[in-house]
């Protein structure tokens, strides 16, 4: 398994070589291994050396997949996220290997120093939430734009149903 530093060095070397007009085998070998092609060794030896490094680059056995928010977007420390209509910043990600809590995200209000919570990834989103009223207004505008002067009865019934549900919830 390559260290983070070794991975960063390979990334830097590969990026440095991308601007070349022509990339031959020796350039590729040097970018991957950090060494010149072997003299006195077979091409097979050099290829196996590169394959070994590439396999290490692809090895994810010691990596943890980032949790995803309720929209499927990966969550990173420092991200701005929304929970219950309010904006927060991700301060920490906790993985519970016992399985009691699973994965939790520590979110902190940008404006309040001591207002912070542990939340499940499925409870937060990166998207700026719109109110139910705004969503219904957008649906009405989409119906109007798509109907070219004709009203589609089913679409309006759906909007009416949503308005009734919203009024029933006292939201």
Kindly report how far apart the N and C termini lie. Answer: 53 Å
Domain module tally? 3
Give the biggest sheet.
4 strands, antiparallel
CATH fold descriptor of the largest domain? SH3 type barrels
The number of distinct helices, counting runs of at least 4 residues, comes to: 5
Helix content: 40-55%
Broad shape: elongated
Strand/helix succession: HHHEEEEHH
Strand order of the largest sheet: 1-2-3-4
Beta-sheet strand percentage?
Answer: 5-15%
Class per helix and strand makeup: alpha+beta
Explain this structure.
It is a single chain. The protein has 171 residues and is an alpha+beta fold. 42% of the residues lie in helices and 15% in strands. The protein has helices spanning 4-17, 25-33, 43-58, 132-147, 153-168, and strands spanning 80-83, 86-95, 103-109, 116-119. The chain has 5 helices and 4 strands. The protein has a 4-stranded antiparallel β-sheet, with no helix packed on it. The longest helix is centred in the first third of the chain and has 16 residues, at 43-58. The two termini are 53 Å apart. A hairpin with a 6-residue loop joins strand 3 (103-109) and strand 4 (116-119). The chain folds into 3 domains: 4-58, no CATH class; 66-129, Roll (SH3 type barrels); 132-168.
Helix-strand blueprint:
Elements: H1 4-17, H2 25-33, H3 43-58, E1 80-83, E2 86-95, E3 103-109, E4 116-119, H4 132-147, H5 153-168
Antiparallel strand pairs: 1-2, 2-3, 3-4
């Amino acid at each position: 398994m390559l260290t983070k530093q070794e991975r960063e060095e390979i990334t830097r070397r590969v990026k440095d070589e991308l601007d070349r007009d022509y990339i031959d085998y020796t350039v590729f070998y040097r970018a991957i291994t950090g060494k010149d092609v072997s003299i006195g060794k077979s091409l097979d030896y050099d290829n196996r050396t590169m394959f070994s490094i590439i396999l290490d680059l692809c090895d994810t056995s010691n990596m943890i997949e980032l949790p995803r928010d309720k929209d499927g977007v990966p969550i990173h420390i420092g991200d701005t996220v929304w929970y219950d209509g309010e904006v927060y910043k991700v301060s920490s990600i906790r993985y519970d290997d016992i399985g009691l809590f699973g994965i939790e995200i520590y979110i902190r209000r940008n404006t309040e120093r001591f207002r912070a919570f542990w939340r499940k990834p499925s409870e937060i989103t990166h998207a700026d939430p719109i109110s139910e009223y705004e969503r219904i207004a957008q649906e009405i505008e989409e119906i109007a734009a798509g109907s070219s002067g004709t009203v589609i009865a089913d679409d309006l019934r759906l909007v009416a149903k949503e308005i009734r549900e919203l009024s029933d919830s006292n939201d």
